[in-house]
Write a structure and sequence with these properties.
With 481 residues, the chain is of the alpha/beta class. The protein has 3 domains: 64 residues, Orthogonal Bundle (Arc Repressor Mutant, subunit A); 144 residues, Aspartate Aminotransferase, domain 1; 243 residues, Aspartate Aminotransferase, domain 2 (3-Layer(aba) Sandwich), CATH 3.40.640.10. It has 16 helices and 17 strands. Strands 3, 5, 6, 7, 8, 9, 10, 11 and 12 form a 9-stranded mixed sheet that branches. It has a 4-stranded antiparallel sheet with strand order 13-14-17-16. A hairpin with a 7-residue loop joins strand 13 and strand 14. The radius of gyration is 23 Å and the shape is globular. The two termini are 40 Å apart.
Length: 481
């Protein structure tokens, strides 16, 4: 647990126990710096997290106070138990049924993997893309063949440098979204029948890719607070011929977990000792809520083993399908795979994004996007506290736009999904994020949409459905006792 998470947890426990009562003034930042031997930013981050959960309020020029009616502090979901044996990856019809349900615009989309398009400067991008199309030099159709638009790759290389990763511009290959980047990296490092380590729970796109590549997977538990379980990964490496590890160390989907910096460094070192490449899915990197952007695992790569994949879809341009891979020692093979997959990424979209990040106020947009997502997270956490049974446990993400909920014992996520969908509300049930139907008592919710009474009512309805399922499960247990 990070320092500010630990501090926030300690204060939340004091509030829950009544040691700090409603309306009581909390210690100042200066006091906590001295007594806990932490930085001012750690204290402020802890207080902000407590604010997001409705436990603490700020009074201008007065300080921080316990809320007059603080909700019970939510606990984080448990991590999964490690799997013993690798299994073939087969994506079930459940995923495709779920994806089909997302097409219904009239549904309240609490389960989608996408944020609201209203949070993005699509109008300005449209102007830029029109300008790019008008001035397009016909020779660009050849010059922008893989590895892609040089100005765009130069911008990406500078972003790496800002977080301590030294990536040569020629290592970067522009792709048709992060999905293509991840797939061509996966194929460059594995062969059909190989065993790969994946997270548990894991984003279903990883399951689709592994199935397509004919791979078997060994699941490694993810803790919603600290990310991938390195002890479990080390044990799996000792027992199985793992050829690659696929992970999202920054704002993992679906849990929202952020691996602390030292654990990212330890992950890279562990894999380097066994010469195992890390496929780092880092599409949410720009969506952080703290003062500083978390460095990727790629920043600690000294052996060219980290294949880092990113995208502009979550940060700037949803639907434009422009991503990239910085694949280290496998860059040449990744470039070759890009030719085989799709020859070239949309050159007008590449040019438009390059132009926007150069002149269009990219940093200003990102600051506004992060502020909106952080505010929407606070709204969702408060709504969960108001409308869901107290037994529900929820993750505390520090970025991205997902929360991971553990339902009360005996409540089926699939049944909750079915009943919610029948009422026009889409959630993401836990079995979507497992190759074997696990996480039957978990759901993922998306806070990436501007808050509204419609979303509030939908969450209230889902919370009531959870309560109904709790009563049904207890009734069934009494009948069988």
């Amino acid at each position: 647990m990070s320092l500010y998470h630990q501090l926030a947890e300690d204060i939340a426990q004091q509030i829950g126990a009544g040691t700090l009562g409603p309306g009581e003034r909390l210690p100042s930042v200066r006091q906590l710096r001295a007594t806990r031997h932490v930085s001012a930013s750690t204290v402020l981050h802890a207080y902000r997290l407590l604010e997001d959960h409705g436990l603490v309020v700020t009074r201008p020029r007065s300080g921080y106070f316990v809320s007059d009616d603080p909700p019970a502090p939510p606990s984080e979901p448990r991590a999964a138990a490690p799997a013993e044996q690798p299994t073939p990856v087969v994506v079930t019809d459940l995923l495709f049924d779920y994806l089909e349900g997302l097409r219904n615009r009239s549904s309240v989309q609490l389960g989608t993997a996408f944020p609201s398009p209203l949070l993005y400067p699509l109008g300005k991008l449209a102007q830029t893309i029109a300008s790019s199309a008008r001035r397009l030099d016909p020779w660009r159709t050849v010059e922008d063949l893989p590895p892609g638009n040089r100005d765009l790759r130069r911008h990406i290389a500078r972003r790496y440098l800002e977080v301590g990763a030294h990536v040569d511009i020629d290592e970067i290959v522009v792709t048709s979204g992060a999905s293509e980047a991840l797939m061509i990296c996966l194929l460059s490092a594995t062969r059909p029948g190989d065993v790969v380590a994946i997270e548990s729970p894991v984003f279903y796109a990883a399951l689709q890719a592994c199935e397509t590549a004919g791979l078997s997977a060994i699941e490694i538990p993810v803790h919603p607070g600290t990310g991938l379980d390195l002890d479990a990964l080390e044990q799996a490496i000792a027992r199985h011929p793992i050829k690659l590890c696929w992970a999202m160390p920054t704002f993992q989907n679906p849990t929202g977990a952020l691996m602390p910096v030292e654990r990212k460094e330890a992950l890279v070192a562990l894999l380097a000792r066994h010469d195992i490449p890390l496929l780092e899915d880092d599409v949410y990197a720009e969506l952080y809520f703290g003062a500083h952007k978390p460095p990727p695992a790629k920043a600690f790569d000294r052996n060219g083993l980290v294949m880092h994949c990113g995208s502009f879809s979550k940060a700037l341009a949803p639907g434009y399908r422009v991503g990239w891979a910085a694949a280290g020692r496998r860059s040449r093979e990744v470039r070759r795979n890009k030719f085989l997959f799709s020859v070239e990424t949309n050159i007008i979209a590449q040019d438009a994004i390059a132009e926007y990040v150069r002149h269009g106020g990219y940093e200003h947009h990102l600051r506004g996007l992060r502020a909106a997502l952080r505010s929407q997270l606070a709204d969702m956490l408060r709504a969960i506290g108001r409308h869901f049974p107290a037994e529900v446990k929820v993750s505390h993400p520090e970025g991205g736009y997902f929360v991971w909920l553990q339902l009360p014992r005996g409540v089926s996520a699939m049944e909750l999904h079915r009943r919610s969908l029948a009422d026009g509300i889409c959630i993401a049930p836990g079995p979507l994020f497992s190759p074997n139907g696990g996480f039957g008592e978990y759901i993922r919710l998306n806070f990436g949409h501007p808050w509204s009474q419609r979303i509030e009512r939908a969450l209230s309805h889902v919370g009531k459905l959870v309560g109904v399922l709790v009563d049904e499960a207890r009734g069934a247990a009494r009948r069988t006792a």
